[in-house]
Design brief:
It is built from 5 helices and no strands. The protein has a single domain, classed as Four Helix Bundle (Hemerythrin (Met), subunit A), CATH 1.20.120. The two termini are 16 Å apart. By secondary structure, the protein is mostly helical. The chain has helices at residues 11-40, 44-75, 83-92, 95-112, 116-141. It is elongated.
């Protein structure tokens, strides 16, 4: 019912936010899968693919998600932001630190050809995927 009364001015920023969020979840899952594959493998291409997926997929998707969220929030006229908006901020703002750490560890894994940095990358990406799942639930269910 909410979508029927939503102003047309929200359509583009909302579309970009949802697109960015879907890309963020997908590339985060792909990065986690690559890092888990690199955990048991010593193939150099896996470490390079993990780093490239972070740099080309995850970080731009995070930026699109966050920028479009702020754009639509600026169009919104609430006296107080709803709780699900706060959950989204909690998933993205501290989440960028996890992403930057994962990128650093993926870069180290590529240079060292595996080892502990790829394991840390895998753990960080799995944790961030869980955070994104919680934010996705909060945004869609609006408890």
């Amino acid at each position: 019912m909410l979508a029927l009364v939503r102003p047309d001015a929200w359509n583009v920023p909302l579309f970009l936010h949802v697109l960015g969020a879907m890309l963020l979840v997908g590339t985060t899952a792909a990065t986690a899968a690559l890092a888990l594959a690199g955990w048991r493998s010593d193939r150099e291409w896996i470490f390079s693919a993990t780093l490239r997926t972070l740099l080309i997929g995850v970080l731009p998707a995070w930026l699109l998600t966050r920028a479009a969220a702020q754009w639509i929030l600026d169009k919104w006229n609430f006296d107080k932001d709803p709780g699900w908006v706060d959950v989204g901020f909690l998933a993205t703002e501290p989440g960028v630190l996890l992403l930057l750490l994962a990128t650093l560890f993926a870069w180290l894994a590529r240079r060292r050809k595996g080892g502990w940095p790829i394991k840390l990358t895998a753990v960080l990406m799995i944790v961030y995927a869980a955070v994104l799942a919680a934010a996705w639930w909060a945004m869609s269910a609006k408890p």
